[in-house]
Every structure is written in structure tokens, then in C-alpha cells.
Protein: Germin-like protein
Amino acid sequence: MGNTSNDMGSNVTAVAVAELPGLNTLGISLARIDFAPRGINPPHTHPRATEILIVIEGRLLAGFVTSNPENRLITKVLVKGDVFVFPQGLIHFQKNLGKGHAIAIAGLSSQNPGVITIANAMFGSNPDIVGDVLEKAFQVDIKVVHQIQSKF
Structure:
């Protein structure tokens, strides 16, 4: 089991071409996601892969947001044995709804799917994205932007 004693309460163990060179040219990879009670796999995207998630243990809320202009949230509560698909490039997440640990396995349609965690990318870039850009994009006060950036 992965170490879930972090701010997110989750741990992703990737098995892509970097970890297993034998995947080179095969177009597939895997990830094991361990969740503490109420843990999340925060909103993120895979720019080069569709993901299929299989719940091995626990009860998860899984969801993704469709692309502009609808930005429709699609969610489903999953239990052991359930499967959910996240289309390539769309922002998605999972949350453990249970009081115990949860485990899921993700299959991805690329040997190198990439991962962009939304909050990290927006507020933790190096160097920082200019504050007034985020202020306007998120429609919040610049102080809120700086407060969030300080956490990253």
C-alpha cells in the first residue's frame, strides 16, 4: 500500500515507460491509487491518454468535466468491481467516500500518459503565473491568488 499520509490522503504508484522500459512502443501503462479515508486524487488531466479506472477496494466518487463551452460535470459513485472511463485530456478526480482505505487500478492508453495536476500547474508553476492573470481567470482578489500560491 502506498503512503497516504499527505495533504491529499492518496498515493499514486505509476507504472509507465519510465518505471518499466519494457512498455516502450506498447501504448499502455498502469497506476495503482491508494486512498486514505476521505482522501482524494486531486483534479488532473492526462494529455496523452484515456484512463480506465477499476475499483479494487472501497467506495469512490469519480468524475470528470467535459470541455468548453458546456463544462458539464459527470460523476458516479463506484464500489468494488466498478469501472469508470476518463476521456483523454479531460480534467478528472477521485475521492474516497468511505471510512476505510480504498484502492483503484488505472489503465492508460499510452506508455507515457503525462499528468498535469490542475492546482499545482496554476498556482505552483516556476516561475509563478503573473498574479493578475490568475486574479482575472479565477475572478478572485489578488490576495487570494497570493495566498494560494504560497501553499505551493
